[in-house]
Amino acid sequence: MPAPTTPRTTDQTISTTDKNPDDACHDVEAKLAFHECDIHDLAQLDTHLAAKPVCQFLRARGLLIDDPELHRDRDLAWIETALHALPQPVADELRTWVDVLRDQGPRENEPRSWEGIRRYLTTLQPTLTSWTAAGMTTLREVTSDHLHDTLEGLAGTARRQLATALRSLFRVLKRKRVIFRDLARNLAVGDLTSIPRPVPSDLLAGLLDRAETPFARLTIALAAVHAVPAAEIRTARTVDLNLARGTLELHRGLLRHTLYLEKLTHRLAADWLAYRHQRWPASVNPHLLVSQKTALAPDHPAVHRVTLGQVVPPNGPTLDRLRQDRILDEAIATGDPLKLMRLFGITEQTAMRYVGTAYPERTANLPR
Q1: DSSP secondary structure letters along 193-237
Q2: How far apart are CA 296 and CA 287, in angstroms?
Q3: SUPFAM superfamilies annotated for this entry (predicted)?
Q4: Which of 179, 194, 103, 193 is nearest to 146 (CA)?
Q5: pLDDT tens digits, 133-182
Q6: 140 Cβ neighbours under 8 A, 6+ residues apart
C-alpha cells in the first residue's frame, strides 16, 4: 500500500493570493503607470497640455515610467542628429572636433557647453551639406578653392562666423592628425575684438521704465549697471544672491566674481524674488531667473538665451551692447584698467582694450 500522504500544516498552506499588501499595491501602480514618451506624444495633440508638469506630477506619485532619451541635453541631441545626417567619414571627423571642443572649455576645468558647440555646427552645417552633396566623402578632400568659394560673397557677421568656425574645425583636425594640412589657418575673419561702441543716450533713456516685468528690469540692470554677460545672467543662482549683504556671486569656472549691488539693483532683485515666490511658490529651480517654461521643469534648466534677449525692445541695444557701454563708460570716467578688472571681473587684455578705446593717445605707442 502506498504510504499515506502527510497533510500540510497551516503554515505550509499559503495561498498564492496571500501577498504582502504593499507588494500588491506596487503591482497595481505598475499596471497604472504611464510611459513618459506617451505623455509627450499626447501633448503634441493638445496645445493646452504641458507634458513636463504632468510628468512631474506622475513621477512624484510613482506613476511614471521614465524615458532616458527625453532627459538628454537637447543641444546634444541636435548635434547627434546633425552628424547622423552626414556621410560616415565626415561625421566621424566632426565628432573628433566636437569632442575636443567639449574638453577645451572657455575656462579651466569648465567644459564648453553643448549650446555653444551647436552654434558652431549650425554655422558649418550648410557648407558641410553642400560639400557632401557634391560628392565629398572626407574633409581631407577640402582644398583652398573650396574654402574660397564658400566664403565668397559673404560679408560682415556671416563671413566672420563661418570663417571662425572653419578655422576651429581644421585646426583641431590638423592637431589630431585627421588631416594633413590646415588650409583654413590663414582665413581672414575680421576684427574679433572690435572697438567697443557706446550706446546712444536716446536708446538708453527710459529703458528700465519700458521694461514691463520684474524679470526684464533685473536682467537689464545686471547688464547695464554691473556689465554681467548674458550667459552669466542666465546661470546665476538664487543661493548666491544675498540681499542682507547686498551681494551676488557669479561663478566663472574655478573663480568667483562678487557683485556689490547698489540701491537700484538691490531693489529690483528683491522685487523679482517676491514676484517669483508669488508666481511659482513650488519652484525649486536653482537658477535666479526662471520663466514660465523653466520654473517648474523637473530638470531645472536655465532660461533660454532667446527669452533673455527679449527683455530689450526689438530695435534697442542688445544685452551685450549694454554691457559694453557700461564698461566703456567706466573706462572713460577712470582710465584705470585695474579698476575695470576689479569692478567687472574682466581680463587684463579686455580692460586695456576698453581703456585704449577711451584714451587712444595713451596706448598708441604701446607695443602690439
Answers
A1: TPPP-PPPHHHHTTHHHH--SHHHHHHHHHHHTT---HHHHHH-B
A2: 12
A3: DNA breaking-rejoining enzymes
A4: 179
A5: 999 999 999 999 999 999 888 877 788 889 999 999 999 999 999 998 89
A6: 178, 179, 180
Give 107's pLDDT tier (boundaries 50, 70, 90). Answer: low
Residue 223's Cβ-count burial label (10 Å; 0-12, 13-18, 19+) is buried
Instruction: For residue 287, give the DSSP letter.
Output: B
| Contact assessment for residue 92 and residue 132, using Cβ atoms and an 8 Å cutoff | no
What pLDDT score does 194 carry? 57
Higher pLDDT, 3 or 104: 104
Burial 3-18 (b: 16+ CB within 10 A, else e): eeeeeeeeeeeeeeee
Grid cell, residue 179, equals 588631416
By C-alpha distance, which of 288, 258, 283 is closest to 270?
288
Distance (Å, whole) CA 216 – CA 308: 8
The domain spans of the chain are 30-71, 85-175, 201-360
Crossing angle for the helix pair 156-175 and 144-151, nearest 10 degrees?
A: 160
Cut 0.70: pTM above it? no
The verdict on domain 201-360 having CATH code 1.10.3720.10 is no
Residue 63: closest CA among 36, 37, 40, 41: 36
- Give the whole-angstrom CA distance, residue 173 versus residue 297: 38
Distance CA(181)–CA(145), nearest Å, equals 14
For the chain, the average pLDDT equals 84
CA distance 325 to 208: 15
Over residues 216-254, the pLDDT tens digits come to 999 999 999 999 999 899 999 999 999 999 999 998 877
> What's the rounded Cα separation, in Å, for the pair 208 and 220?
7
